[in-house]
Predict the 3D structure of the following.
Amino acid sequence: MDITFSVNGERTEIDVEPRRTLADALREDIGLTGTHLGCEHGVCGACTVLVDGEPARACLMFAVQADGSSITTIEGLQGADGALHPLQEAFVEHHGLQCGFCTPGMLMSGLHLIDTEPDADRERVREEMSGNICRCTGYQGIVDAVQAAQAAVRGDEPGTGETTTSPESGSSRGH
């Protein structure tokens, strides 16, 4: 079955069997291997991608269900110039990853939260990230990273909660 969707901003057309999962289509047909397969039951969150801006478990979704959709994977998180997204930078800075297996799903869930609830408090961040399992970090660094990225995206001065402006342009800072 021929399907067309946008993956990380690029129109993509593939021929898939109706039973092929979105995770398998992304990894094997398109070559985007950043979406990890953990439990393949939708429990661990390692396969989380954004479909039309909403988190989806790519191991549970058929590729044909994504026909006409816009999909964002971990490969689409960095800037066109290769610069890391503020969330990726925060994960490094706050030790939000160790083995890295859960990291793509964590980043996609964190990105959704930052995009939809940029002022979410620590409890809300924990709640949102609880849908992703990490066996290494203990989650403290992950929650710290998401909160640091929230501040960076808002343009807050670290630790103050206040938005800074550039003296030259008067515009807010952030990525």
User: Anything to note?
Assistant: Confidence is low (pLDDT under 50) at residues 163-175. The longest strand covers residues 2-7. Residues 79 and 96 are 20 Å apart (CA to CA).
